[in-house]
Design brief:
Blueprint (H helix, E strand, L loop, with lengths): L1 H6 L3 E2 L4 E2 L4 H21 L4 E4 L20 H11 L6 E5 L6 H4 L8 E8 L23 E6 L5 H18 L3 E5 L17 H18 L4 E4 L6 H15 L1
Helix pairs in contact: 2-3, 5-6, 6-7
The structure holds zinc ion (ZN).
């Protein structure tokens, strides 16, 4: 990856993610920002963070994927565990794409609770995240995929969210990570859900309250995807307002 980053051409790790000059350094900054956010929260210097550039949920432990050079969320989870001893972590993902890079790398991890609402993999990249995928082995039941059909809007989202919230309440996490991609809003050029920023506002408000009940308020939000600039502004401002 470092060579491809220097050369600034070709694809990373033989996959679908194009290299650009300095991509390694940029990705390292994104992951580093997440680690700095975690440090501040653990030290008590901050209660919650919102990092707009972050939440690169398609990269795997060893490979870039889906335009995600490094999975900052995975780096964060490993650091929370290994440096700070935080075990029970909730990963909540409302980006329109399934968070496969987090989901599959932790599929058999019984202490990472994943709730992922996305457009169904039948219709959209990365083609995964079906409702029957609930985690493996000892981790069975610690993952919840809630795929929505193309065209689904706020009403369908709110129904899925209520189910996610029941699941998260039972999980009683010590720390909450929120990937709040804006690409599920109506008018995104890459996907076909029709959410409004009210969905993001609701999810952020409810997740903040859940973190306050179980995790001493500790919550980190990441912007994730979004390919319509007005939608990005609306969704991320809604999240920020709910968390500030
Ligand atoms: Zn996305």
């Amino acid at each position: 990856m470092i060579e491809a980053s220097r050369a600034g051409e070709g694809f990373l790790d033989g996959g679908d993610t194009p290299a650009f000059a300095g991509c390694y350094e940029v990705a390292a900054h994104v992951a580093g920002a997440a680690l700095e956010g975690a440090r501040r929260i653990i030290c008590g210097e901050a209660l919650r963070t919102f990092q707009p550039i972050g939440g690169l949920h398609h990269a795997r432990r060893t490979d870039a994927a889906g335009f995600c050079v490094v999975n900052d969320l995975g780096v964060l989870i490993e650091t929370l565990r290994n440096e700070y001893g935080v075990r029970r972590i909730a990963y909540v993902d409302i980006d329109v794409h399934h968070g496969d890079g987090v989901f599959y790398e932790y599929e058999d991890d019984p202490e990472l609770f994943v709730a992922d609402i996305h457009e169904s993999g039948e219709f959209l990249y990365p083609g995964t995240g079906f409702a029957h995928e609930r985690g493996r082995g000892a981790a069975r039941g610690t993952k919840l995929n809630l795929p929505l059909p193309p065209g689904a809007g706020d009403a369908e989202f709110l129904r899925a969210w209520a189910e996610a919230e029941r699941f998260l309440e039972d999980a009683a996490p010590q720390f909450v990570i929120f990937q709040c991609g804006a690409d599920g809003l109506a008018g995104d050029p890459l996907a076909d859900l029709r959410l409004s920023s009210a969905a993001h506002a609701h999810a952020a408000r409810r997740l903040r309250a859940l973190a306050e009940r179980h995790a001493r308020g500790r919550l980190m939000a990441f912007g994730g995807g979004g390919y319509n600039l007005e939608n990005l502004a609306a969704a991320w401002c809604a999240v920020l307002e709910a968390l500030a």
